[in-house]
Amino acid sequence: MAEEPVKTRKRLVINADDFGYCDQRNRGIVESFQNGVVSSSTLLVNAFKASEAVLLSRQCGIPLGLHVNLTEGIPVKMKCSSLTSENGFFKGKFGFREALKRGEVDLEEVKQEIHAQLQWFVDAVGLLPTHIDGHQHVHIMPQVCEILAVVMKNAGIKWTRIPAEMNFDSCVWIEEPRRSFFQSVVSQARDAKETFSTYGIKCPTHFIGLSTMGKDMTINRLKQALELVYNEKEQEEGTQSICELMVHPGYRSIMGCGGCGEGPDVFACSVDREHELLILTGPDLKDYLRTNKIQLLSFKKLL
């Protein structure tokens, strides 16, 4: 259903994160692109099956962005640096953030790692990424987004993700501690938008995805979020709304297989990924998008 030629002001990019994580994730992303509503994906270049994901993207025509990773697995550039723990792995989602706060991370090494991941992508894919976002939202952290914005400007990459979801505070079904973490993401995203804009980096008008991850994804919640984005006032004023929906489809990872060097995490091995896959390939969401004349695009089509 991707890339429908519909004349509408309602445009939607549905991006599947973590391409390359493992065979099960790769298979789910391909299926959600071919038989569902996913229109693009972002590649984890340090993941166990990244090379296979590149081949699949080429065979299936999946537009690819870069999923910058500074938190999980083994770095591409330096195996032992301020970005890693003593075991040579990244410090983790919270460990990296705490190290940044304490001033323990060398920002020049952050820049070098981002450059190395971008170069790996270009060498493997043969093209620049259509966009860049961050694994576990590292790209909108204050110390990181300034570095990334400069790299993107110099490379000529024009699109990023700003995960500032509308009305997130009303999403009462999200439990702690995820809720507090997502609230910090929304807050940082709003500040990062200004930084990226200063360097000429663009982002979709709206974002959905924090409130609909894994088991939290339902057809009704997706509909409500999209209706909030494509509101009547904007349509009357003739505004062209571009929204990104962040998704994580796939089959359950096999414990000990895949990941970015340490094996898959608990979320990857849960049923949550398969739950998203069922919704993204099922008829209800496709029918809703078609009925409401919401045009599916990739970031490639926005260039």
Structural class category: alpha/beta
User: Distance between termini?
Assistant: 20 Å
What is the average of the pLDDT values?
Answer: 92
Shape: globular
Please indicate the percent range of residues in DSSP E strands (runs of 2 or more).
5-15%
Radius of gyration using CA atoms only: 18 Å
Regions with little confidence, pLDDT below 50 for 5+ residues: 2-6
Total helix count? 11
| Helix-strand string | EHEHEHHEHHEHHEHHEH
The tally of beta strands, per DSSP, is 7
Largest sheet: 7 strands, parallel
Helix percent band: 40-55%
Can you offer a commentary on this structure?
The structure is a single chain. With 303 residues, the chain is α/β, with parallel strands linked by helices. It is 42% helix and 11% strand. It contains eleven helices and seven strands. It has helices at residues 23-34, 50-60, 93-101, 107-125, 142-155, 178-198, 219-229, 232-237, 272-281, 283-291, 299-302; strands spanning 10-19, 40-43, 64-68, 132-134, 206-208, 241-247, 295-296. Strands 1, 2, 3, 4, 5, 6 and 7 form a seven-stranded parallel beta sheet that branches. Helix 1 packs parallel to helix 9 and helix 4 (107-125) packs across helix 5. It is globular and about 50 Å long. The relative contact order is 0.20.
